[in-house]
Design a protein that fits this description.
alpha/beta
Length: 915
């Protein structure tokens, strides 16, 4: 007996549209009692079989969560016999009214006649169809969700719109026939020599049997072709076939009154499977396919090619044309070239081998044919192969045993492989001959680097020398410059662009190792520009032009007027941000050869890699957008091993990187390398330096004996602090780190070098005589690089000191600052492989004792000692004196007292500032 309490029950809905596009629905009855979400769902979906009448509905403790389409479908079907709905608030009622409006017009037969597509949006003529803008938006969202839930794509909707206008949304009407109308696709009969497929209409009985007309009735009208038991359904069968045919995109056919029977080519079958099948499946139209076609994958057709050349005797072999030997197989059976070319010419996509069928992408076949034609025409050389300037399919990737079996397998004959590897690995290249004018003896790996730079120049390929700090990138480049500027055809200077902090270093190193090179420094407010610059080059004819990144950016118009013999970027990571004015200006400069020097592992910094390669070999990686899509996104987002291999293969020929951990290099390196890091004074420092010198000279003239010696020692200490940083000299408090770095090149250089060492996973000691300098370095490393750096000074208790030493040895922090007196003796700090002397002690023995904290028994790594010297100052002059006196007798310089014994002439020379 029917429960009378259920008759005409009113549920009041609260409708909440959420950010994810779903609706949260909750309800109360007429007495204000909350309806449990599960019970509410059963009423909402009482006639929806796909939702299992509400059992599949998503609910929580408060609400039922539905999509626009699900909410919309509640009101498309017949209303619930016992329950009706209204809105709890005016807003809820308005939303409910809009949903009802949308459901009403959806059921109207001419609904799709009022629909239009505009820039990816479905619009309706709201006035003609009689709905509000809210109802129109609900229809738009519901249709989008229907498509997303199907196998269709939204882009297919414009092509389907004419058919929707004629037949409505398919699959929503219920058929009363005892049979189904279906399409059946049948493969070609290879035994009969046929290459055509057959698409035909079949009638599927209740038992699943497939019926098609007898041969003699193939062209008869549907009513005449059908068996007597189904003749009464002829009109409905004809209408269903017409509806299905209207959705075909792969072929244009009008079967008229007869059953469809249509031959199809391979390309038409591919379009049918790609475009038509998803639509039929989405709308519930049955399609019967060959069983094998449901699981067919790309074919087992394999192409193998091996390349070879005639001669590998010299570098001239780079211009040798590659010869290719092509082999084909299908299902592990060999195919000759004529058969392969026939497959391409016939545009075949589905091929049978034995009892198996295979699908082959015809575009891929055509691509292989194009590659074969290019190869046979002799378009590629060994140079193209080495530098990846050939189609991607031919590029041999690194074999890690994990890559998928490729459709095209490329290999090289053994002799060609050995030759290419020799060049790629930079071993055994032609000997360029170390220049006689070089005042240094190159180590074996440095000779290899020098030979490689010359080789890359001769073949017009940019080069990135990325050796570890301390392996001698500078001396390798200077050797290269001597080679270039000894050539009779070199008529313009080479340009070196470097950070301001190493400008002095370059001046000193070239003077030291290649005094025959004429060097001009393009820097400072009095530098030549425009016509004056061109005149300077014509008159002085410098071999090398030194400038800084900042100056090159400001003077890009002046510098771009010259085609330089070579352009070298030192610390090339300075152009890593390709959008900055500096990076764009420098990448616009013109040179016969471009070289990048960097000690950072650029393989792991992909945006930096693009900028550097765009400088050394313009256009090699295409636009940054292309590089981002091809490499950065797949590698950084998806960690794609395939793209990593491709990228390594592409950069390998242009990149020479050796590390101090390379066992081959360890055999050739000294246990300790000491070098000066020359830093110019800033304008502020230079002005303070000259003023202080003048005042001190005046005072020295009025003093004699002990007082004079005391003033000299005090003056030296003050000047050393000024060379470190003007704030120390002026006794100013620390200000923001970036501001402090701008006032001292030396501080900037120490902080950046220490940060680089830490980022490379190495450890360093920084020694200074001054507490203020140690605190300043610590402040900058903390603020700019987020490095918490301990500072061991004389006031530190022994327990804390011992704890810090143990922690540093255990690798708990990468940088350790020590005062020279407190940390110069008695400590074992062999975890460090870099030692930075921020300021010079006049007694070399004290410096050596400090260095020996790292360079001692237990040290297994190469130790690199950096001594920071301010150019043109007392630091540089005393450094030279120490070298001269050390050559005579180490005993003379075992204390700083020797400085006070200098003659007036020597002291005057010592105090002269050389800009």
């Amino acid at each position: 007996m029917m429960n009378t309490e259920q008759i005409n029950t009113l549920f009041q809905l609260a409708i909440d549209r959420q950010e994810n596009g779903l609706y949260a629905l909750s309800a109360i009855d007429s007495n204000g009692r909350r309806i449990a979400p599960g019970r509410l769902a059963s009423f909402l979906f009482f006639s929806n079989e796909q939702a299992l009448y509400g059992l599949l509905a998503v609910t929580d403790e408060q609400s039922v969560h539905v999509s626009t389409n699900e909410f919309f479908q509640v009101f498309v079907g017949k209303p619930h016999p016992f329950v009706s709905f209204s809105g709890q608030s005016e807003k809820d009622e308005a939303h409910l009214t809009a949903v009802r409006e949308a459901a009403r017009v959806w059921n109207e037969p001419d609904f799709w006649h009022y629909a239009e597509l505009d820039a990816g949006t479905i619009r309706f003529d709201e006035e003609k169809i009689g709905i509000s803008a809210s109802a129109s938006m609900i229809l738009h969202d519901a249709i989008r969700e229907k498509i997303q839930a199907s196998a269709m794509r939204f882009e297919q909707l414009p092509a389907l719109l004419p058919h929707l206008k004629k037949y409505g949304w398919p699959g929503e009407s219920v058929s009363t026939m005892p049979v189904r109308v279906a399409f059946r696709l049948t493969e070609p009969d290879d035994d009969a020599g046929s290459t055509e497929w057959l698409l035909e209409t079949v009638v599927v009985s209740e038992r699943g049997a497939h019926w098609t007309p007898a041969v003699k009735k193939v062209n008869a009208p549907i009513a005449d072709a059908l068996p007597a038991k189904w003749k009464s359904y002829a009109t409905e069968i004809h209408e269903k076939q017409s509806e299905m045919v209207s959705f075909l995109q792969s072929i244009q056919v009008e079967p008229g009154e007869r059953f469809l029977s249509m031959p199809m080519s391979d390309p038409e079958v591919r379009v049918f499977i790609q475009e038509d099948l998803p639509v039929f499946q989405s709308f519930g139209y049955p399609v019967i396919l060959p069983a094998w076609l449901k699981s067919v994958t790309e074919s087992k057709l394999r192409v193998r090619t091996s390349a070879s050349v005639q001669s590998y005797r010299s570098a001239a072999g780079l211009d040798e044309v590659l010869a290719f030997d092509w082999n084909f197989s299908l299902a592990d059976k060999e195919i000759d070239q004529d058969t392969f070319r026939k497959l391409v010419d016939e545009n075949r996509e589905f091929i049978r081998s034995g009892d198996e069928w295979f699908h082959i992408d015809p575009q891929w076949l055509k691509r292989i044919r194009e590659l074969m034609d290019q190869a046979d025409a002799g378009e590629w050389t060994v140079k193209d192969l080495l530098f990846q300037e050939i189609p991607e399919e031919i590029v041999p990737l690194e074999d890690d045993g994990e890559s998928d079996d490729p459709l095209l397998a490329f290999s090289m004959k053994q002799s060609l492989r050995e030759y290419v590897e020799m060049i790629a690995d930079k071993h055994g290249l032609p000997d360029a001959g170390v220049p006689d004018a070089l005042n240094a003896e190159l180590r074996p790996y440095q000779i290899e680097g020098y030979n490689w730079l010359v080789f890359m120049r001769d073949y017009r390929f940019g080069a990135c020398l990325a050796d570890d700090m301390g392996l001698g990138k500078t001396i390798q480049l200077i050797s290269y410059l001597l080679n270039v500027h000894s050539r009779p055809d070199t008529s313009s200077p080479s340009l070196i662009i470097c950070p301001t902090s190493v400008l002095g270093n370059w001046q000193k190193e070239i003077e030291r190792f290649a005094p025959s090179l004429v060097v001009h420094t393009h820097y400072g407010p009095s530098r030549a520009k425009d016509e004056a610059f061109d005149q300077l080059l014509a008159e002085r004819k410098p071999d090398v032009l030194l400038t800084t990144y900042g100056t090159a950016t400001q003077d890009d118009e002046t510098l771009s007027g010259t085609v330089f013999a070579s352009i070298t970027l030192d610390e090339a990571q300075n152009i890593k941000n390709m959008q900055t004015k500096q990076s764009r200006a420098i990448r616009k400069l013109h040179g016969e050869h471009q070289i990048a020097l960097t000690g950072t592992p650029i393989e792991n910094r992909l945006s930096e890699l693009w900028a550097i390669f765009d400088f050394i070999h313009k256009g090699y990686f295409g636009s940054f957008r292309t590089f981002n899509e091809q490499f950065i996104i797949p590698i950084e987002r998806d960690d794609s091993a395939v793209e990593k291999r491709k990228l390594r293969a592409k950069i390998r020929p242009f990149l020479l990187r050796r590390t101090k951990n390379d066992p081959d290099l360890q055999l050739n390196l000294p246990k300790k390398l000491e070098q000066n890091e020359y830093c110019p004074l800033t304008t502020e420092q230079a002005a303070l330096y000259e003023s202080f010198i003048e005042d001190t000279k005046f005072k020295l003239d009025t003093l004699t004996g002990f007082e004079r010696k005391g003033l000299i020692l005090k003056m030296l200490s003050r000047l050393k602090q000024l060379c470190n940083h003007p704030a120390l000299f002026l006794k100013e408090p620390a200000s923001p780190a970036d501001e402090m770095l701008r006032r001292s090149v030396k501080l900037n250089r120490i902080v950046s070098m220490a940060a680089d060492i830490a980022s490379n996973g190495e450890q360093c000691l920084i020694f200074t005589q001054y507490i203020g300098m140690g605190q300043l370095i610590r402040h900058c490393l903390s603020e700019l690089h987020d490095l918490d750096v301990p500072f061991l000074s004389g006031s530190m208790p022994k327990g804390q000191r011992d704890h810090l030493v143990d922690a540093f040895q255990a690798g708990e922090f990468p940088i350790f600052i020590l005062s020279l007196k407190a940390g110069g003796t008695g400590l074992n700090l062999t975890a460090a492989n870099h030692v930075l002397h921020a300021d010079r002690w006049w007694n070399p023995a004290v410096e050596n004792q400090a260095t020996d904290r790292a360079y001692r028994i237990g040290q297994t790594k190469f130790v690199h000692v950096h001594k920071f010297v301010s150019v043109g100052t007392i630091e540089e002059k005393i450094d030279k004196m120490l070298q001269e006196k050390a050559a005579l007798s180490a005993d003379l310089i075992q204390s700083s007292q020797w400085i006070t014994e200098l003659s007036d002439a020597e002291l005057d020379d010592l105090l002269t500032f050389e800009r």
